[in-house]
């Protein structure tokens, strides 16, 4: 291990040295000359991002940032023509005579059409133009949702808005989008960053960040990069989701907006408030005009809703079509979201920027779950009479997740040199203090139990099944959990632009250090034998709460969680602590990553090529516990190891014509194992001579992939795009759950379940995207915008396990990968109204492998098609009213085992309607 560490340090030093020498040598190839800079605005002086500014004579171009600025350095003096390109706007040209450093000031981009000479970035047409422009002139394959675009759909959070982009879909929780899948890859295979700094994840077992925690009101845009360049940190296989924060310099003057909303959930007959506000201003300071920019945004929402659920968890005898157990659940949920962002920019000179980006988001999920579990003595077919047990359960917990982040940096350009230094940190935690994890009341039946239905199962039972006094209190679980993740980083980037007769070459190098730690702590108390403890209230009738409001059939009495916890408070909690469960799930994983890269970006008349490589070294340390049930003893589980990776990339873009361009890329990526897979917990048990173990694997290697992308994009003169993108991923060290019993040190085990790096896997597919303003047919159709995208993908992976010492294998799809995802939207907009009808579809996908040796028990999520509608009425330029309708067809969530005839989970959420008002000082 020590020899490997020394070699890694040498590799890292060589990577840094090679990068530095390359730039130093490049510095002698050109001499300093004139600079040219400016800002691009629309007719209302709103700054335009994503505008390509080019100088054809020199074969160079720049793309304006969020502040509308562009800058050329090291230009020879002379007469030049500037060209400005923006989606949906005819190309604009301007002549300039350059004799020294020159600032052009504000350049107004206009759309000359039908006698109208203006361009206003407002509404769905303009926001689509902004997003398409950023995608068109990006170096790699990028999907963009601007803050304006986020507001055009009736989505409840950022993840749902992103799911409308090509190649993206959402992983839901209780009917709300939470995690993002990119090109069919599971959320843990994608990275979420905040202005380039990786966000910490609050959940104990995951790296994925739930984007519903972050209110969209705090953002300027969200960019999803699908081809990762060497300058970008590794850690994603599908793509990197970068959240761009607001800045006062994104606008040319003071700005504010305020919105207030009330929504109604049909399922629970509840109303919910939401308010948000944004303010930004630019100040003079220390004699510098317009040098300090301050932007502040805040958001608060309290959404009350619920769901009705029935699930089997896959407990079927498939061959006999008989059911072992099923559970009916009724949820009442309140989710509060609060977000704050304060961003400060100080620009004492036009080429220097000091900045601070901050984010704080708090998500509180208050959930009460009533359940009715039916357990049959033997598997029973639908309608057949059986003996069994009914268990009425209660779960009540308030879970709070917080995410905070800050980025402090300085960026400076001196002639053709540009450097950037930045430090950042992110912290996330999840707290579930002393919560009612499960309270159980039981009643046994010698006969009379059965079920009916397929997807929506219903209980058949005697009348006593609905009598509260016939259920006896059996046991109660109380839990206290805490998870914390911290990430801190520092990086330095240096670049030099060289202008040659054949175009421009930017050489860029950088180093980055990051430290990440994940800690999980859980305590669990199991209250049982409560009559012996002196508890007098021992039937469900002692904890009345009326009948549960359950929409999928008859449910019966609900349990009052407050009364139950109050009764338990009379007992000494320490007497009921479960020592095994309170320690075995505690762990800590530390990762230290050192990285360096070298990248070249060449732009010619029609070509742009990015080539380079990134080196990353990961040191991992983990600590957990091993519990040996045969001797009832704990022992520490420790791990320390490291690995290194070179990640080369070649990304290109070629313009066939002014409207058509081809993209191609060969890139490398890696994804580190999830914390649930790495957690060094080991449980060893023996039952009647059978030895069983389950454990995490902190020695897992990162999953790596070689990625190929090829596509063509066509941007017509009118607002729109037609594109087709092929992608292929060759994945190494695919990670999956397996059973190692029967081999090696587990030769005598009956089960040894863990995670391993396995065989290769592949993912390939096609992304189709179409956006078009229906312009030129008639004045009526000029107001319509149609968008649609379709992603077709396939995956192939193989899992293996041992059965009686014999190696067994079978082929599976990658979990969470849908063969088809699609979106469609049609919108209408005029001076007063903005209307949009949108649909989101994803086909079924594999959720998990339940039985290694039998695909009939694989768990799948069924296809979903959801329709949403939004309408806005502009009273005047500063005031608009809006109406949103979500899940118009009341689309359910359905999981099945093997085939759709075998329910695994069925859940309904109802429709949600919202009305609101927005005030803006345009």
UniProtKB/TrEMBL annotation:
Keyword terms: Cell outer membrane, Membrane, Receptor, Signal, TonB box, Transmembrane, Transmembrane beta strand, Transport
Annotated localization: Cell outer membrane
Membrane topology annotation: Multi-pass membrane protein
TonB-dependent receptor-like beta-barrel domain boundaries: 437-888
Pfam families registered for this protein in UniProt: CarbopepD_reg_2 (PF13715), Plug (PF07715), TonB_dep_Rec_b-barrel (PF00593)
Residues in the signal sequence: 1-33
Record domain TonB-dependent receptor plug: where: 137-240
Name listed for the protein in its UniProt record: TonB-dependent receptor
Source organism per UniProt: Rheinheimera mesophila
């Amino acid at each position: 291990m020590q020899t490997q560490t020394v070699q890694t340090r040498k590799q890292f030093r060589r990577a840094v040295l090679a990068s530095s020498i390359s730039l130093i040598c490049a510095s002698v190839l050109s001499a300093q000359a004139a600079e040219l800079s400016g800002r691009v605005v629309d007719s209302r002086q709103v700054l335009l991002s994503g505008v390509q500014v080019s100088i054809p004579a020199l074969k160079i171009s720049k793309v304006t940032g969020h502040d509308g600025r562009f800058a050329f350095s090291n230009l020879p003096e002379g007469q030049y023509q500037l060209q400005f390109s923006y989606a949906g706007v005819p190309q604009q040209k301007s002549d300039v005579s350059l004799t020294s450093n020159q600032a052009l000031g504000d350049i107004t981009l206009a759309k000359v059409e039908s006698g109208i000479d203006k361009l206003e970035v407002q509404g769905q047409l303009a926001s689509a133009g902004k997003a398409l422009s950023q995608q068109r002139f990006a170096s790699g394959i990028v999907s963009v949702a601007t803050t304006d675009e986020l507001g055009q759909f009736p989505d409840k959070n950022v993840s749902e808005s992103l799911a409308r982009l090509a190649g993206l879909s959402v992983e839901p929780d209780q009917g709300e989008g939470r995690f993002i899948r990119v090109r069919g890859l599971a959320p843990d295979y994608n990275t979420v960053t905040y202005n380039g700094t990786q966000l910490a994840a609050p959940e104990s077992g995951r790296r994925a960040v739930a984007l519903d925690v972050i209110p969209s009101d705090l953002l300027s845009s969200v960019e999803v990069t699908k081809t990762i360049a060497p300058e970008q940190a590794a850690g994603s296989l599908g793509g990197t989701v970068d959240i761009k924060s607001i800045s006062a310099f994104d606008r040319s003057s003071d700005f504010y907006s305020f919105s207030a909303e009330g929504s109604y959930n049909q399922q629970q007959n509840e109303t919910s408030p939401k308010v948000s506000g944004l303010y930004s201003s630019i100040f003079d300071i220390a004699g510098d005009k317009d040098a300090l920019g301050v932007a502040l945004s805040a958001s608060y929402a309290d959404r009350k809703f619920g769901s009705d659920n029935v699930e089997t968890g896959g407990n079927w005898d498939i061959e006999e079509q008989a059911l072992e157990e099923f559970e009916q659940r009724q949820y009442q949920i309140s989710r509060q979201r609060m977000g704050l962002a304060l961003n400060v920019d100080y620009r004492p000179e036009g080429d220097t920027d000091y900045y601070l980006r901050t984010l704080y988001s708090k998500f509180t999920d208050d959930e009460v779950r009533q359940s009715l579990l039916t357990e049959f003595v033997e598997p029973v077919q639908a309608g057949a009479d059986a003996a069994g047990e009914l268990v009425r359960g209660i779960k009540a917990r308030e879970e709070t997740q917080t995410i905070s982040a800050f980025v402090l940096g300085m960026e400076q350009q001196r002639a053709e040199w540009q450097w950037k230094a930045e430090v950042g940190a992110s912290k996330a935690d999840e707290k579930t203090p002393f919560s009612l994890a499960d309270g159980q009341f039981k009643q046994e039946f010698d006969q009379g139990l059965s079920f009916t239905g397929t997807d929506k199962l219903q209980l058949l039972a005697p009348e006593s099944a609905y009598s509260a006094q016939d259920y006896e209190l059996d046991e109660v679980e109380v839990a206290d959990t805490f998870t914390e993740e911290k990430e801190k980083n520092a990086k330095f980037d240096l670049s030099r632009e060289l202008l040659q007769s054949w175009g421009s070459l930017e050489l860029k190098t950088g180093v980055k250090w990051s430290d990440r730690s994940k800690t999980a702590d859980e305590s669990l108390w199991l209250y049982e034998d409560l009559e012996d403890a002196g508890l007098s209230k021992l039937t469900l009738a002692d904890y009345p709460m009326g009948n549960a409001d359950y929409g999928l059939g008859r449910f019966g009495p609900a349990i009052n969680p407050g009364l139950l916890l109050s009764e338990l408070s009379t007992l000494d909690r320490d007497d009921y602590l479960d020592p095994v469960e309170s320690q075995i799930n505690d762990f800590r994983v530390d990762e230290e990553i050192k990285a360096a890269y070298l990248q070249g970006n060449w732009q010619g008349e029609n070509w742009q090529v990015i080539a380079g490589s990134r080196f990353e070294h990961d040191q991992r340390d983990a600590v957990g516990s091993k519990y040996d049930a045969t001797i009832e003893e704990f022992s520490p589980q420790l791990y320390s190891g490291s690995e290194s990776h070179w990640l080369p990339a070649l990304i290109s873009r070629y313009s066939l014509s002014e409207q058509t361009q081809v993209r191609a890329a060969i890139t490398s990526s890696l994804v580190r194992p999830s914390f649930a897979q790495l957690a060094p917990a080991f449980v060893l048990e023996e039952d009647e001579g059978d030895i069983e173990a389950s454990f995490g694997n902190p020695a897992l290697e990162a999953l790596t992939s070689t990625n190929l992308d090829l596509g063509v994009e066509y941007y017509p003169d009118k607002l729109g795009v037609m594109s087709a993108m092929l992608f292929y991923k060759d994945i190494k060290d695919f990670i999956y759950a397996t059973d190692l019993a029967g081999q090696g040190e587990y030769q005598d085990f009956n089960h040894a379940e863990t995670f391993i790096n396995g065989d290769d896997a592949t993912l390939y597919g096609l992304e189709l995207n179409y956006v078009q303003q229906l312009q030129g047919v008639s004045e009526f159709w000029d107001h319509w915008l149609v968008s649609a995208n379709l992603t077709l993908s396939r995956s192939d992976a193989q899992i293996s396990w041992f059965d009686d010492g014999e190696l067994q294998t079978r082929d599976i799809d990658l979990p969470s990968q849908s063969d088809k995802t699609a979106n469609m939207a049609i919108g209408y907009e005029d001076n007063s109204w903005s209307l949009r009808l949108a649909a989101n579809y994803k086909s079924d996908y594999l959720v998990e492998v339940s039985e290694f040796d039998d695909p009939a028990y694989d768990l799948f999520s069924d296809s979903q098609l959801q329709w949403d509608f939004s309408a806005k009425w502009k009273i005047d330029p500063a005031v608009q009213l809006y109406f949103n309708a979500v899940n118009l067809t009341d689309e359910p969530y359905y999981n099945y085992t093997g085939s759709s005839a075998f329910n695994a989970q069925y859940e309904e959420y109802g429709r949600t309607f919202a009305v609101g008002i927005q005030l803006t000082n345009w």
